[in-house]
Backbone:
C-alpha cells in the first residue's frame, strides 16, 4: 500500500517528521517502511528550506525502491532553466523573474556544479505520471486530451525524452500546452476586464479551474488560486474538462489551506502549502479504497 506525500518545496525537516509519523524508519541513508511505499507528487524544490537534503532523502528512497515519484512543474522548470537554447539563452530564460524564482535552489546547488547537474539528471528521470491500476498520480491534472500529445515524447517509463524539452518550452508547439495542463493545471482566460494577483503578486488574466468539481459552473465558484478576487457570476465556456473516473487520483500543486480533505470521492489534492508559514506537509495513507476516506489524511505543521 502507499502513502502519497504532497509538495515538499525543500522543507526537509517537515518531510522527515512526516515520514516518522507515518512509520518510516531511517536505515542507513534511506527511510523505509516494512509494509508500505511512499509516493511523491513532485515539487521537491523552490522555497526557503533545505534543497540538497530534501532531494537526497527523496532520491535515495526512490532509488532504493521505498518510494515512487512524479515530476512537478518546479522540476520541469529547473530542467529547462539548465538547457541552452539556440539563441545563446536557455529554454527557460535567465531573466529577472526566473532568476528570482530559482534563487534558493541555486544558492544551495550552484548553477553548473556537479551536484546541480546530478540533481537535474535525476529530475529528468521522473515520470510525468503514474497509473498503478487502482490509483493514479500526477502533479496537476489527469488531462485525457493531453496524453495523446505527450505520448510520442515519452519513454517506456513515461519520462520525457531528451528532445522533448525544447518543444515543451515553445508556446507555439502543442507539447507546450499539454505539459502546461498536466503539470500546471487547466487555465481559462477570465472574462474581459477581470484579473487577480497570484501568490507572488503577479497580475493574471487567466485562472485555474476546479476540474474535479461538477458544481463549478460559473466563474464565481469555479476557480482556484484567485484569492479574494471578485469574479462574475457568469457561466464558464461550454468546453470545460472534468475528471469523472472512479479510479482514485492524487495531485499536488494547488496550495490548499485549512484542514486536509478530499476534493471529491475520487480526487485528493495533498499540497497544503508547506512552503508558506502556517502551511502543512500532508500525506494520504491509501489502503486500497476506491472512495477516499477523510480519516486517511495525515500531516505535520510547518516549523518556523
Residues:
Amino acid at each position: 500500500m502507499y502513502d502519497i506525500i504532497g509538495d515538499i518545496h525543500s522543507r526537509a525537516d517537515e518531510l522527515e517528521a512526516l515520514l516518522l509519523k507515518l512509520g518510516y524508519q531511517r536505515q542507513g541513508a534511506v527511510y523505509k517502511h516494512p509494509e508500505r511505499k511512499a509516493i511523491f507528487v513532485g515539487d521537491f524544490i523552490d522555497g526557503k528550506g533545505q534543497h540538497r537534503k530534501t532531494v537526497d532523502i527523496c532520491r535515495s528512497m526512490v532509488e532504493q525502491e521505498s518510494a515512487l515519484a512524479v515530476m512537478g512543474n518546479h522540476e520541469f522548470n529547473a530542467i529547462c532553466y539548465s538547457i541552452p537554447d539556440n539563441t545563446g539563452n536557455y529554454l527557460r530564460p535567465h531573466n529577472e523573474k526566473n532568476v528570482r524564482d530559482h534563487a534558493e535552489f541555486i544558492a544551495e546547488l550552484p548553477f553548473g556544479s556537479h551536484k546541480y547537474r546530478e540533481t537535474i539528471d535525476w529530475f529528468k528521470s521522473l515520470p510525468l505520471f503514474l497509473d498503478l491500476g487502482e490509483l493514479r498520480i500526477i502533479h496537476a491534472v489527469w488531462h485525457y486530451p493531453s496524453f495523446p500529445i505527450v505520448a510520442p515524447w515519452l519513454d517506456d517509463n513515461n519520462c520525457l525524452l531528451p528532445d522533448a524539452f525544447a518543444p515543451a518550452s515553445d508556446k507555439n508547439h502543442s507539447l507546450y500546452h499539454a505539459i502546461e495542463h498536466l503539470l500546471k493545471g487547466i487555465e481559462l482566460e477570465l472574462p474581459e476586464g477581470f484579473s487577480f494577483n497570484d501568490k507572488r503578486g503577479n497580475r493574471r488574466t487567466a485562472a485555474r479551474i476546479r476540474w474535479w468539481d461538477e458544481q463549478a459552473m460559473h466563474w464565481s465558484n469555479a476557480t482556484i488560486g484567485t484569492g479574494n478576487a471578485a469574479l462574475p457570476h457568469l457561466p464558464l465556456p461550454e468546453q470545460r474538462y472534468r475528471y469523472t473516473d472512479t479510479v482514485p487520483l492524487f495531485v499536488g500543486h494547488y496550495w490548499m489551506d485549512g484542514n486536509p480533505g478530499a476534493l471529491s470521492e475520487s480526487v485528493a489534492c495533498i499540497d497544503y502549502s508547506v512552503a508558506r508559514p502556517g502551511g502543512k506537509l500532508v500525506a494520504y495513507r491509501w489502503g486500497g479504497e476506491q472512495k477516499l476516506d477523510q480519516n486517511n489524511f495525515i500531516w505535520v505543521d510547518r516549523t518556523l
Remarks:
- Residues 213 and 264 are 7 Å apart (CA to CA).
